[in-house]
Amino acid sequence: MSVVSLKDVSVYEDGVPLLEEVTLSIEEHDFLSIIGPNGAGKTTLLKVILGLITPNAGTVEVFGTTPQKGRTFTGYLPQHISFDANFPISVFDVVSMGRYTKSFASYTKKDEEIVFGALKTVGIVTFAHRQIGTLSGGEQQRVFLARALARSPRLLLLDEPTTGIDPEMRKSFYELLVTLKEEMTIVLVTHDVSVISVYVDSVACLNRKLYYHGSAEGALEKLEDVYQCPVEVIAHGVPHRVLRRHNND
Questions:
Q1: Where are the alpha helices (DSSP H) in 77-128?
Q2: What is the mean pLDDT of residues 226-246?
Q3: Which of 101, 143, 152, 247 is the least crowded, having the fewest Cβ atoms under 10 Å away?
């Protein structure tokens, strides 16, 4: 059974298509990257999977049920997380929010163990009692990732999680995701096309319509169609311009 199954999904806003007839199946323990230009519908697609947006047409199943019910098994790191850096809340308390269901009163000793486990997984357990506003941007992203992991998800959705993070921190973040895919399915929305040549298992090329879904290697030939311009990929530190296949290849 697929973790996520979308069939002929279309989403419109004021008559403008955000997604058009998208059919996509995501398998267990896949590390999928969704790439495409701004306004391509990538965030919309994640919100459809989460059940936050109801499609105008098509069907969606998550873990064989509705997206709303499947959300129980899903962790989500949104693109923008706004918070007051001066607010005196600790890293531990932020991550603990991933365990809250109906009320704060439901928090248990088991929840505490899971929170510390999530902090250890992302490598910031020593920051547990620090104020989150004192951390760097990359460290804060790990806190929010830990909050998503505190839900003990089987599906992890990440929307542009490395925006504003320096290259070295970005590399370690991607390497962490590679280890996490052993325990869950990961869907990563990103503009960083270099990630497809190193880290992910499969790629979905999206620009309102789904242009490609398959191996990372095969995606390189579809990037120009999706972005509608030449695309340069940095692979292993070396720039390669992605060109259409020549007849003599």
A1: 91-96, 109-121
A2: 47
A3: 247
